[in-house]
């Protein structure tokens, strides 16, 4: 044996924090478990959705003009002006600034998305909860009404409800409320059917039967035990319906049943007015609102689809064996 003393261990730097590990704790485990194309979809969808929310929040400071502004200092902007220093994306056929209309349109889209989802998820969840738990003739009646509404084309139903609710009003509140309510009516049957199916499964679980045996009231069982275990799929449905609400809003505006241009900026209306411009070679009036609509729908859809994949336990089982076979584990030395 050699008499050479063993080399001392190198001291680690005491002030070096483990930043990657701390940041990893802030990210949910399912998100950190995403790999490859799934992670790319998740990051792309989250980035585009965050960009939409940021543009809607900062629209008053980012937009060079108002959404209904036609002049500056007494001088009109002009109709179909090409992109230039004063108007980076040009002007529309009505003389509005394209960039301003696009940025202000993000606020309209976010407001209609939030209001329509709020007006649809609350009644749909409550109706699905009571229908699935109580059953009987009320359950059969609600299922029949939901199936009847679900059988109508969503855009046609939204058009009818928009005409009925608006009643010829062109104000901002009336236009937003009519658009949101017409879109919400399309989504209520979806939440009703999703929650009802989960309630039918959960109410047969042993813990619900145990709560009934010890004398717990029906309202407490429904809201404390059944409801909290029946809404796990709603966040995924919310993201997918958010993308559908953007398309429905754009369809209403394109067909002339949306919000008036003087009340708020709306991408569907701008696309309707730019159809004749495209055939005349004026491409800039349709490029910005069309791109904004596509990116918004793409971002929300990718976010919803990636979250749906992460919530699927079958995909997590497929990744588990691959993650366990690491190079260090394969080269583990055997003891003599």
UniProtKB/TrEMBL annotation:
UniProt name for this protein: Peptide ABC transporter permease
Main localization of the protein described in the UniProt heading: membrane
Family recorded in the similarity comment: Belongs to the binding-protein-dependent transport system permease family.
Annotated signal peptide: none
Sequence intervals crossing the membrane: 40-63, 109-134, 141-165, 171-192, 234-259, 282-304
The species this protein was found in: Kitasatospora phosalacinea
GO biological process assignments: transmembrane transport
Taxonomy, superkingdom: Bacteria
């Amino acid at each position: 044996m050699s008499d050479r003393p063993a080399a001392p261990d190198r001291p680690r730097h005491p002030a070096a924090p483990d930043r990657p590990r701390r940041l990893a704790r802030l990210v949910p485990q399912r998100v950190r478990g995403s790999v490859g194309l799934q992670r790319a979809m998740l990051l792309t969808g989250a980035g585009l959705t965050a960009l939409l929310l940021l543009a809607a929040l900062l629209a008053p400071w980012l937009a060079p003009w108002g959404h209904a502004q036609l002049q500056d200092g007494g001088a009109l902007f002009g109709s179909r002006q090409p992109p230039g220093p004063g108007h980076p994306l040009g002007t529309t056929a009505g003389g509005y600034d394209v960039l301003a209309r696009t940025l202000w349109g993000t606020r309209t889209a976010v407001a209609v998305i939030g209001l329509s989802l709020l007006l649809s998820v609350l009644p749909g969840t409550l109706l699905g909860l009571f229908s699935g738990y109580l059953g009987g003739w009320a359950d059969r009646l609600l299922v029949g009404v939901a199936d009847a509404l679900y059988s109508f084309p969503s855009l046609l139903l939204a058009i009818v409800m928009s005409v009925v609710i608006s009643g010829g009003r062109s104000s901002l509140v009336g236009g937003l409320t009519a658009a949101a309510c017409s879109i919400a009516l399309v989504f209520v049957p979806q939440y009703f059917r999703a929650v009802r199916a989960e309630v039918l499964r959960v109410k047969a679980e042993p813990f619900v039967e145990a709560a009934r045996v010890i004398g717990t009231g029906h309202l407490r069982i429904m809201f404390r035990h059944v409801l909290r275990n029946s809404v796990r799929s709603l966040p995924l449905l919310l993201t997918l319906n958010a993308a559908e609400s953007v398309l429905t809003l754009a369809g209403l505006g394109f067909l002339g049943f949306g919000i008036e241009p003087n009340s708020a900026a709306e991408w569907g209306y701008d696309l309707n007015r730019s159809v004749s411009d495209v055939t005349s070679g004026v491409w800039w009036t349709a490029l910005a609102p069309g791109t904004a609509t596509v990116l918004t729908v793409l971002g929300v859809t990718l976010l919803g689809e990636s979250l749906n994949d992460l919530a699927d336990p079958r995909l997590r089982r497929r990744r588990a064996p691959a993650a366990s076979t690491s190079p260090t584990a394969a080269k583990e030395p055997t003891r003599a």
